[in-house]
Amino acid sequence: VCGCCPWSRCCGMGDFRPRTVWLGHPEKREQRYPRNVINNQKYNFFTFLPGVLFNQFKYFFNLYFLLLACSQFVNELRLGALYTYWVPLGIVLIITMIREAVEEIRCYLRDKEVNSQIYSKLSTRGTVKVKSSGIQVGDLIIVEKNQRVPADMIFLRTSERNGSCFLRTDQLDGETDWKLRLPVACTQRLPTAADLLQIRSYVYAEEPNIDIHNFIGTFTREDGDPPVNESLSIENTLWASTVIASGTVVGVVIYTGKELRSVMNTSNPKHKVGLFDLEVNCLTKILFGALVVVSLVMVALQHFAGRWYLQIFRFLLLFSNIVPISLRVNLDMGKMVFSWMIRKDSKIPGTVVRASTIPEQLGRISYLLTDKTGTLTQNEMVFRRLHLGTVAYGMDSMDEVQSHVFSAYTQPTHDLPASRAPAATKVRKTISSRVHEAVKAIALVHNVTPVYEANGVTDQAEAEQHYEDTCRVYQAASPDEVSLVQWTESVGLTLVGRDQSSMQLRTPSGQILNFTILQMFPFTYESKRMGIIVRDESTGEITFYMKGADVVMAGIVQYNDWLEEECGNMAREGLRVLVVSKKSLTEEQYQDFEARYVQAKLSVHDRSLKVATVIESLEMEMELLCLTGVEDQLQADVRPTLEILRNAGIKVWMLTGDKLETATCTAKNAHLVTRNQDIHIFRPVTTRGEAHLELNAFRRKHDCALVISGDSLEVCLKFYEYEFMELACQCPAVVCCRCAPTQKAQIVRLLQERTGKLTCAVGDGGNDVSMIQEADCGVGVEGKEGKQASLAADFSVTQFKHLGRLLMVHGRNSYKRSAALSQFVIHRSLCISTMQAVFSSVFYFASVPLYQGFLIIGYSTIYTMFPVFSLVLDKDVKSEVAMLYPELYKDLLKGRPLSFKTFLIWVLISIYQGSIIMYGALLLFESEFVHIVAISFTSLILTELLMVALTIQTWHWLMIVAELLSLACYIASLVFLHEFIDVYFITTVSFLWKVTVITLVSCLPLYILKYLRRRFSPPNYSKLTS
């Protein structure tokens, strides 16, 4: 197979090629295949150090400090001790590395858990246990019921009697329906599974690709006589990340590791950088610009005398405080505190923060993209309503249905002759017989098979013989079908047996009714209906039953005046509606139909069209029996959560792999689309012209939700990307159904590019991983389905309802606190830089530092670090208020807490305070220069502590501790700082009054301004707290 084409590239690991896989002989491989490991890590052991350093120094911010610290090795540029520049930088890097290392180790442990799941493998030594990561191409793997398929396999054998198995694929494609899979016929016929190793056979498989819905391959048995060749299609595959829903299966592995369909459908995780970090980075660039300008001005005022270029460098170093190095440390530590708070919140138990670098992103989400199955819904169907036109039965009146069914089978006069007489059909049937007819129809028209499993007491054969209730499980492709059959069982008519040609029902009295299945017309997405023709063995009656969506059934059933209205009412309640109808056939009618049907099936040209025409000849004037309403139960508190998000100004988009009808039902049921909103269902389009017309039709509608399928979406994005996104972004809600995993990620990317707003993606399945990794914030819901999404996400929650609190409380607080913290740190460093500038200009523009050595390090660490950092505990409103008034969140979307306006205000405050303190000290000192240092430094520390107190909105006991501790530290350290500060001078009264006056002049005006502002133009939240 390899190198069959002359231009094929070298056979490395990089390109994918077709392969021949020998059953049970992994050693016969012709090329190297990747190991079967799942890996979500960003770095490995060797790339960790270079990777982290690169990610740190690619920011202008950190690179600047590195250059600054390095410059101190040059003698002409040295200002004071080396440690003043290297210690802060070292601390920053160590903290960052510890944080990254903790996240990597967590990630590694989660992957290890998945990679070390144990499976059974068939080998010449019998069955051996093997880890998921040890599985190779060519291995024969046994997968039990409810176990995850560990690698892409071809289905060889099953323990099921009917020779097929069901798969749950919601982790792969988001569809709730179970898929039927068929084993290779040749291997299913073998007496035992061990015989798979005795035959000489191989599978030829196409090269790995991204398409999960198609597969091309062949199976060949060489030692057969003659050799056996079978074609393989998607029906013979078991893709990784799916779950076996019935029986035990044996398969041969054809793809592993990064060649798995599920892995190829997920994009590489990107290193997420928060918008807030980018904004702070932008502010530091402005500060750096200011630093250069100030240095040039200083040198210009010296008239560029002497070696002025060295002077520029010295000034750059002297004013380097303008760009605060402690900003990064404070913000990173703040993020760790926010992450810890989220983890420790008892109102959202089980929440995990996997990316502790972006908690403040949660405070500015504009678009929330959510999956449906398992995220908004529980993926459990419940029968809610039976409607017979004149009467409807809800959950509370099911006992009436039960008594009607019971009476129908226990009355001795089972009116058989009457039903044959032509006159009887005209008479209005009694309600009892109508209910019975409806229940019987629902119990017959489906594709469900009852399966009996041994439970401790009875074994399988015995259970099947006696139709043991405790051992019975229903299997079907779709959960709605199962819920209908379970409902008929609850009202007394039980499906107890079924095979290809017959069905058995048990009545409330225990009598068994036998039906022969004459024809079966399965459900397809095109026809939207399914039918079955059965013969009742006891009476010989032939009946054609049918159920389907109301849109198609309306034209098939006899005229009535209630169908459309009631379907609408039930759909508005978020129920999935099916219309059930029947038609009695005479023996002659059926024979005539069968002859035409068989002939149509044999035709070569237009076969499907001819078959459909024959079936449609039956589908006329059918008797409408009832409507059934089934609900896919929503997760707890989905409606209030979506309401909170909507009021907070967040637009919710639902992206699902499920069918259009189901998606629309859930959207209504969850109130994603409010009652008074119209829904515009985008018609399927395939060409540019059709897309143009549909977009124009949609443009004319206002304030209506959009429902669009994945295929139509692709066409629109191909030709009219800009126009489509512009219209979609104006919609209050958007639902995309039949979305492929990569398409979900594409929609997220488009939203980010088109709107520039922040997006948050929520999902629970493997099919949501790409979207979660693409979004600015990925939230995984730990579902029953598995942990794939929650492992790849930045935050993982246990229920969708926790999202409200995560955004409204934690997101909002993290963002507001980060903004306050960053601006305060900038203010702190600008104050001291202003003082340095004033000092230098007074002393003839000399490049002499005002504060030496420990004073400069102590200023931004031990003296002011705790009070400034305690701002991460500040909150403007209680969490209950934030949840009650989600409109508060809306304010943050404009990015006001950290903007150029607020930044400018803080810069002006810093310049004012720095100048006042320095000029005050210069005016009030009498004799010695040392006194200037003492007065100005003490005033500076006091001013900082007072400013923190001014900024705080809600006091926390730790804040008070921090303020007092810092003050105590400063007073205690004065004893050791005798080389910088005159200890005897500090104890004099003149020192105390000078410091008090300077501090008052620098802080009092700001306190007065704050009071006036709160009095005459209070912010929104203060109105709620008062």
Structure summarized in a few sentences:
The protein has 1026 residues and is of the alpha+beta class. Residues 124-259 form the P-type ATPase A domain.
Q: What features would you describe in this structure?
A:
With 1026 residues, the chain is α+β, with helices and mostly antiparallel strands. It folds into 5 domains: 45-114; 117-265, Calcium-transporting ATPase, cytoplasmic transduction domain A, CATH 2.70.150.10; 338-346 and 805-1023, no CATH class; 367-376 and 636-797, Rossmann fold (3-Layer(aba) Sandwich), CATH 3.40.50; 379-409 and 428-452 and 470-631, Calcium-transporting ATPase, cytoplasmic domain N (3-Layer(aba) Sandwich). It contains 37 helices and 33 strands. The strands form 6 sheets. It has a 9-stranded mixed sheet, sandwiched between helices. Strands 17-16-26-25-24-23-22-21-20 form a 9-stranded antiparallel sheet, with helices on both faces. The chain has a 6-stranded antiparallel sheet with strand order 3-2-4-13-5-11. A hairpin with a 6-residue loop joins strand 9 (217-221) and strand 10. Helix 13 (431-444) packs across helix 15, helix 18 (587-602) packs antiparallel against helix 19 (607-618) and helix 20 (638-647) packs parallel to helix 27.
Write the SSE topology.
Blueprint: E1 19-22, H1 48-57, H2 60-71, H3 83-115, E2 118-123, E3 126-131, E4 140-143, E5 152-158, E6 165-168, H4 170-173, E7 179-181, H5 185-188, E8 201-205, E9 217-221, E10 228-232, E11 237-238, E12 243-244, E13 249-255, H6 261-264, H7 275-301, H8 308-318, H9 326-344, E14 352-353, E15 365-370, E16 377-387, E17 392-393, H10 398-410, H11 416-420, H12 422-426, H13 431-444, E18 449-452, H14 460-466, E19 472-475, H15 479-490, E20 494-498, E21 502-506, E22 512-521, E23 529-536, E24 542-548, H16 550-553, H17 563-572, E25 576-585, H18 587-602, H19 607-618, E26 623-634, H20 638-647, E27 651-655, H21 660-669, E28 678-681, H22 688-699, E29 704-709, H23 710-730, E30 733-737, H24 741-755, E31 758-763, H25 769-774, E32 777-781, H26 788-792, E33 795-797, H27 802-842, H28 853-863, H29 865-869, H30 879-884, H31 887-892, H32 900-924, H33 929-951, H34 957-973, H35 983-986, H36 989-1016, H37 1020-1025
Parallel strand pairs: 15-27, 15-31, 27-30, 28-29, 29-30, 31-32, 32-33
Antiparallel strand pairs: 1-8, 2-3, 2-4, 4-13, 5-11, 5-13, 6-7, 6-12, 8-9, 9-10, 14-33, 16-17, 16-26, 18-19, 20-21, 21-22, 22-23, 23-24, 24-25, 25-26
Helix pairs in contact: 1-3, 3-9, 7-8, 7-27, 9-27, 10-13, 13-15, 18-19, 20-27, 22-23, 23-24, 27-32, 27-33, 32-33, 32-36, 33-34, 33-36
